[in-house]
Amino acid sequence: MPKSKRDRPVTLSKTKKKGRGQKESQVNSIRGAIDSYSSVYVFSFENMRNLKFKEFREQLKSSSRFFLGSNKVMQIALGRSAADEIRPGIRKVSKLLHGNTCFSLVCPERRIFNAFGETDFSRTGSKATEKVELKEGPLTEFTHEMEPFLRKQGMPVRLNKGVVELVSNFVVCDEGKPLSPEASRILRLLGIKMATFRLHLIC
To answer: How many Å apart are CA 101 and CA 56, to the nearest integer?
Structure first.
């Protein structure tokens, strides 16, 4: 049967692109905040988790203000040269804003940054911090309903009297190697957290 021209898929998850107006609003927000604070601190982050970062910001919102967004927009707001910098010498901060970086105004004590660390499940593509290998035999942590799902993840499993059983030893991930989508799902099921969300002060 020929395909109908009226049968067109409609995406329900369309989002509006961030336009010039939003970028200008962020630039104005940064410039307005700079006038209210006496110092700027730049830090990098690894394994960013939005919810954890939001909680961290909430703890310090009375004394600090954090800016996280497009590095180029933040550089423009601060100024990238002596001619367009909004405060003398702040162009040096702009040069440090690249990669996974943010900046805050009035930084809390260094020990708070150093002590901060939240563990979470690793995402696809991140490097495994240890080797995880499952031995042949029954997997009592999984219910019989999960057997088809585990098989889809590449695990050599079968049902034996209602118990999920591993037919042979199975290596979920190797230390230092990127995690596959299947490996990250299995680690989540096993409750193994390998990622740590940290902040590192740069200047």
So the answer is: 16
